[in-house]
């Protein structure tokens, strides 16, 4: 059953300083058929491991030794600059718009994810998000999207409650089909809502899911 | 080292202290004469010209003369080695500009106490300084010079009283002069010390020492408090939070394996509970010490607090990079408390956080369009924050007339941390 949501098997480098959690995530990813080629505990080791193994994707914590500040995020941004196209999923203990913004601004914004660490508890969602990122998608934690939407600025006031709901799901990186299933409506209805949202926000229409996500996020961050 | 301790120790005569005592008293005499001239001429000219209005600014200037005099006197205390009076007895004006500065200065007691000191200095103290120098140094020196005068002119009039025209008489006068010079050095040390203590007491006001110590201990307390918050945040993050995440992950995996039935339901319930605990813990940790403040600074942290507020908040800040940690922390918690009050009591539809850095100080304003009538003494929240701001020499003021709007104003003097400093 789980193999469906995990997509193709990936070779992953994992960086997480808590041993307990590191072992847990390794076990989880292995269970879903992925291979963790290196599991490290700090940012320098992460950079070294990526150089050595050339993985399909990187999963990293934000806060890591030695400074216990945002070394993981720094390493992620650096990796994306050095290796465009390397999918990176960043796990954060806190929802921070500033972290998400910095990460999404690195590279071209594709193949990148920012999730609250709690999401690893939803094992299937977590593995699905990783697969999405590895396939070049953009995943942003719903909590970040909710924070962005809470800044009720005027253009957003023009949206209907249903459109706001759809917008939140778009920003999380969901496809039209997934949004339709979540809201229990037809895909055509979702398409219509999205068209109307993009028009109201003066954004260019886009087919590609991640480009759509990026357009919406760029608008929300502005 | 003070002149008092030097007087008690050995080698006083050979040290710099007698010279410093003479320098202190001589400079006092010269300065006091100038002060007398300035104050008398300022008061006379100002009083005479008051009828034609131009005299009034002159009188105001004369009233303020105590401020520079006191500043110089505080610096001169170092000459006598007396513990300097802490500066900053004057308040910082609430607004920029000359009128606000004048109003503040003329209303506070420090200005008038310093003027009183300047008058005392100009009328009584400097003649005493001068007399001490003459008696303790000039007269003995003139006696020491007696042999030279006799050699040059055949006679010398010692201390203007005794005529000396013989060599034995001249050398006796010189010997007596040397003894008196040594005694005078000690006497001058005592006079300079007493004079400096008097200036210190008059310029400091009675509680200055105690206040200084209290301010210091308050700064220490706030620092300790801040360090403790960071430690608790770190311990919770490294300990309980990681374990809870691991627990939800284990429960999540267990749910995958459990066959549908009561066991799966119970696992789902346990999973849900663990997640709620995690959410609560995360909020708690955020309230103790937000990571975004440490990592990205005040602007990002205020934007983050604005995002969390149930009342829509506009943020308009102009900050030059990072500010010192205690300043960022105090400013952030003030904004959080203000926004919490806006959400709880004001009934406002909108709030705005604005401000920036300029003229060596951070200025923040939190404004809402609510019903006003906020009482700064009502809750301990703002009072505690005002204390925290005042430890940093800052000021917090609240204006909240009934019917609104409510405006909270915070000012903290500080310097931005240079951007190239990675430890900032």
Question: How is the secondary structure organized here?
Answer:
The complex is a heterodimer of chains A (222) and B (424).
Chain A: H1 2-6, E1 11-15, H2 19-31, E2 35-40, H3 43-53, E3 57-61, H4 71-82, E4 88-92, H5 97-105, E5 112-116, H6 123-134, E6 138-140, H7 142-150, H8 154-157, H9 161-171, H10 176-183, H11 187-200, H12 209-221
Parallel strand pairs in A: 1-2, 1-3, 3-4, 4-5, 5-6
Helix pairs in contact in A: 3-4, 7-9, 9-11, 10-11
Chain B: H1 3-8, H2 17-49, H3 55-63, H4 66-76, H5 98-107, H6 109-144, H7 146-153, E1 156-158, E2 162-164, H8 167-204, H9 208-257, H10 262-288, H11 291-296, H12 298-308, E3 313-318, H13 325-346, E4 351-358, E5 361-368, H14 380-391, E6 395-399, E7 406-413
Parallel strand pairs in B: 3-4
Antiparallel strand pairs in B: 1-2, 4-5, 5-7, 6-7
Helix pairs in contact in B: 2-3, 2-6, 2-8, 4-6, 6-8, 9-10, 12-13, 13-14
Explained architecture:
The complex is a heterodimer of chains A (222) and B (424). By secondary structure, chain A is α/β, with parallel strands linked by helices. Chain A has two domains: 2-140, Rossmann fold; 145-221, Rossmann fold. Chain A contains twelve helices and six strands. Chain A has helices at residues 2-6, 19-31, 43-53, 71-82, 97-105, 123-134, 142-150, 154-157, 161-171, 176-183, 187-200, 209-221; strands spanning 11-15, 35-40, 57-61, 88-92, 112-116, 138-140. In chain A, strands 2-1-3-4-5-6 form a six-stranded parallel β-sheet, with helices on both faces. In chain A, α9 (161-171) packs across α11 (187-200) and α10 (176-183) packs across α11. The longest helix of chain A is centred in the last third of the chain and has 14 residues, at 187-200. The radius of gyration of chain A is 17 Å and the shape is globular. Chain A starts with a helix and ends with a helix. Chain B is an alpha+beta fold and 424 residues long. Chain B is elongated. Chain B has three domains: 3-206, no CATH class; 210-288; 295-413, Histidine kinase-like ATPase, C-terminal domain (Heat Shock Protein 90), CATH 3.30.565. Chain B has helices at 3-8, 17-49, 55-63, 66-76, 98-107, 109-144, 146-153, 167-204, 208-257, 262-288, 291-296, 298-308, 325-346, 380-391; strands at residues 156-158, 162-164, 313-318, 351-358, 361-368, 395-399, 406-413. In chain B, the strands form two sheets. In chain B, strands 3-4-5-7-6 form a five-stranded mixed β-sheet. In chain B, strands 1-2 form a two-stranded antiparallel sheet. Chain B contains 14 helices and seven strands. Helix content of chain B is 66%, strand content 10%. Classes of the chains: A alpha/beta (222), B alpha+beta (424). Chain A: Keywords: DNA-binding, Phosphoprotein, Transcription, Transcription regulation. Chain A: InterPro entries: CheY-like_superfamily, NreC/VraR/RcsB-like_REC, Sig_transdc_resp-reg_receiver, Tscrpt_reg_LuxR_C, WalR-like, WH-like_DNA-bd_sf. Chain A: This is Response regulator transcription factor. Chain A: Residues 11-132 form the Response regulatory domain. Chain A: The modification 4-aspartylphosphate is found at residue 61. Chain B: Keywords: ATP-binding, Kinase, Membrane, Nucleotide-binding, Phosphoprotein, Transferase, Transmembrane, Transmembrane helix, Two-component regulatory system.
